[in-house]
Amino acid sequence: MSFASNRAHRLGNTLYKRAFPIYRPLYRAYKAYSDRGERKLLASQLTPGCVVVDAGANIGIYSQFLARCVGLAGVVHSFEPEPTNFARLHQALSHLPNVRLNQVAIGDTTGEGMLYISDALNVDHRAYPTGEHIRQTTPIRAVKLDDYFRPGERVDLIKLDIQGYELHALRGAERLLQERAELKLLLECWPYGLALAGGSTTQLHGFLRQRGFKVYQFHNGVLSDFTMMLTSRFILIYLPSDRNHNSAPTPTESKVGSALPN
In this structure, which CATH number among 3.90.1570.10, 3.40.50.150, 3.50.50.60, 2.60.40.1730 belongs to the domain 35-255? Predict the structure, then answer.
């Protein structure tokens, strides 16, 4: 992290702690600009009535955006385990009829767990020991998506941004991944965090390929075939044509906004 970026993060976290009414609109504007490509990509994959999982919802910026995408006929299941973040998530979105708020972490087991709190960044709490330095901990509840959703229940897209715990969350969604033939996944790929949590990009890639997913990476506004040579921020993963019965052409590199494989 550059010096300027580090200072910006520290300033943001200070505002979060001491001036949240100022922080939220500033952070919302920042995310709308910095993630404009990812948002366009998400919007292209969602229609009114879709059911979406937003795991690692933080204070609800993305859940609010997703709620607009799916409309009143759809549902956003929002998950945030950290107490302060969840309180602010609840305050901001509890009035929305198409958002379900859950103060739990997504993982590979259902039950009690521990959250390792970051004093430096409100977006960097983790469901595993960091190994970097000692963090304060708080007890949390965790749930497998296979336990949260009933067999056969509709889910169209799962968005995971959980600081390297994505592989654990997917292992807890085995049934869901198999029974929902058109399920799409949008994950943040953070190799360092995956390694700290006991996994790797290679394991994540292999896990999904073995379950019939075709993997693409999204980097600098470009959607292209996945390569582990690139440390991409987001990876779009979706089912290939032999499982969703649509013609999904092999993508060449394309800017978001052009036709995406379905």
Answer: 3.40.50.150
Triad 250, 251, 256: Cα angle to 5°: 150
Measured in residues, the chain has a length of: 262
Global pTM value: 0.87
- Tell me the per-residue pLDDT of 110-141, one tens digit each, with 9 for 90 and over: 999 999 988 877 888 888 888 767 899 999 99
**DSSP string of the chain?**
--HHHHHHHHHHHHHHHH-HHHHHHHHHHHHHHHTHHHHHHHHHH--TT-EEEEES-TTSHHHHHHHHHH-TTSEEEEE--SHHHHHHHHHHHTT-TTEEEE--EE-SS-EEEEEEE-SS-TT--BSS--SSS--EEEEEEEE-HHHHSPTT----EEEE-STT-HHHHHHTTHHHHHH-TT-EEEEE--HHHHHHTT--HHHHHHHHHHTT-EEEEEETTEEEE--TTS--SEEEEE--HHHH-S--PPPPSEEBTBPPP-
For residue 2, count other CB atoms closer than 10 A to its CB: 7
How confident is the model over 225-240, as pLDDT tens digits? 877 665 545 566 665 4
